[in-house]
Amino acid sequence: RGALNAREEWLPLTMRLEYDEAGERFSVHRCEGSSSTATNRDNFVDDNFIEYELIAVISCVFGGDEKEWINGDPEDGRHLITHVRVRPEDLNHGSAPGQEPTWLLVNDFLLKPVTADEAVRFQEWRTPAVIYYARKNLESLCPAVPLANPITRNVYKNDRSLGNPLLADKTPTFVPPSTEELATAMTVGIDAEFVALTAEETELRLDGTNLVTKTSRMSLGRVSVVRALDSTATVGVKGAEQRLAGTPMIDDYIKTPEQVMDYLTRFSGLVPGDLDPSTSPHHLIPLKRAYVKLRYLVDKGYTFVGHGLSNDFRIINIWVPPEQVKDTVEIYHLPNRRKISLRFLAKECLGQNIQAEIHDSIEDSRTALLLYQHYLVCYSEERWEAELERIYDAGQACGWQIP
Predict the structure, then answer these.
(1) Among candidates 185, 189, 176, 186, which has minimal Cα distance to 235?
(2) pLDDT tens digits, residue range 379-403?
(3) Of 44, 172, 199, 323, which residue is least crowded by CB atoms under 10 Å?
(4) pLDDT tens digit sequence for 12-49
(5) What pTM value is reported for the model?
(6) Nearest 5°: phi and psi at 26?
(7) Which among 282, 289, 70 is positioned nearest to 167, based on CA atoms?
């Protein structure tokens, strides 16, 4: 397409499709100005033309030098970003309806308001992949369609394992959520374990240190969701019910779509064979089903308690509203001080020795729930700040090592 001027608007914000008198051929014309400055805002359609406005642009962004992304691995040095046009009232509750629409940049987990000029400006490092125009005044032309969440509690029905039934654990590691539990937002503990699909790449610097040039690609290997410690859920016949407080409602091992390079056993507790349908004794499901099951809980309003959840949710690629996240990494943290490990907190606050050899997501989920309970007790007794200082003092005294 040749070199473009850095300030050139390669895409029109508004364009017009004009039809000939027979209505058989049409031509496309760029409209000057944005939709907000166009005259006759309600007269977007007549007998011979229809106006469209730019709604979103998905672009491919190239990183590194040109040789890297042209002749190298197609995945090296490139990723997708999105610019989407939004109404101010959708972006900021304090904005009045009818104000000038703004643009939002979506880059991985980054959300940033940008100008319309930035959305339509292209340079050699950014190429449009998908361009989406919508007919102006579309809302008044189409009836309102009620939104319905396509993810229902049915995702928990017929939740069959892909694992080998002959090798299946004799005692299930979890009790699936009941209809009542799925109908009500609850507080649960959550922890995820991951495996590496590719190796980390590094370069040796002149000072002898290693520089990470490409991080390893991770995939979900196991996810466990544990009921709250005060849950009233039970299982069994009337008169002989068993309380399920603190027990897992999900303990899924994930069949990865690609070959696993490193199971990271020391940190994940996973070993070769755990994620293979022919050899796994666990409840093994596809990645998509695991995601949809979690997505249902998020949409239902569940509150998730865990340690380091921002990283877990990022790799799982699921967004959870901040008000539904209780992360003990952040709760047990003083500004400008180090983050404290789950293992140290369990020993110092609960007197428990966890992760002695390998990690277990059920144990870690339950520990996070206990730590959150400890925080709530200290906070209600107005001694939380003193407790947090005590934890940091204890950590510094022992060098943050577990005796």
Answers:
(1) 176
(2) 999 999 999 999 999 999 999 998 7
(3) 323
(4) 888 888 776 666 666 676 665 543 333 343 444 455 67
(5) 0.75
(6) -140, 160
(7) 282
Residue 346 DSSP class: I
Burial (CB count <10 Å: 0-12, 13-18, 19+), residue 258: exposed
The DSSP symbol for 166 reads G
Query: Cα–Cα distance between 388 and 394 in angstroms, integer?
Result: 10
At residue 267's C-alpha, the angle toward residues 264 and 268, to 5°, is 70
Among candidate residues 366, 4, 66, 61, the one with its CA nearest the CA of residue 187? 366
- pLDDT tens-place string over residues 110-147: 778 888 888 888 887 888 899 999 888 777 777 777 77
The whole-chain average pLDDT of the chain stands at 83
* C-beta of residue 123 within 8 angstroms of C-beta of residue 6: yes
**Cα angle vertex 22, ends 18, 23, to 5°?**
45
Residue 56's beta-bridge partner residues?
84, 132
Q: Which pLDDT score, from 0 to 100, does residue 68 have?
A: 44
Give the type of residue at 78: R
Long-range contacts of 99-107 (CB under 8 A, 24+ apart): 100/36, 101/35, 101/36, 105/81, 106/81, 106/82, 107/81, 107/82
Burial class (CB in 10 A: 0-12, 13-18, 19+), 276: middle
Cα gap 194→315, rounded to integer Å: 9
> What angle, 0 to 180 degrees and rounded to 10, lies between the N-to-C axes of helices 384-397 and 361-380?
130
CA-nearest of 235, 232, 236, 258 to 245 is: 232
Q: What is the DSSP string of 177-202?
A: PPHHHHHS--EEEEEEEEEESS--EE
Alpha helices in 235-355 (DSSP H): 265-268, 287-300, 309-316, 328-331, 342-345
Written as one string, the DSSP assignment of 36-94 is TT-SSTT--B-SSEEEEEEEEEEEEEE-S-HHHHHHS-TTTTEEEEEEEEE-HHHH-TT
* Rounded CA separation 283/160 (Å): 8
- Residue 278 DSSP code: T
Note whether 397 and 388 are within 8 A (CB).
no
* Whole-number Å distance between alpha carbons of 353 and 399: 17
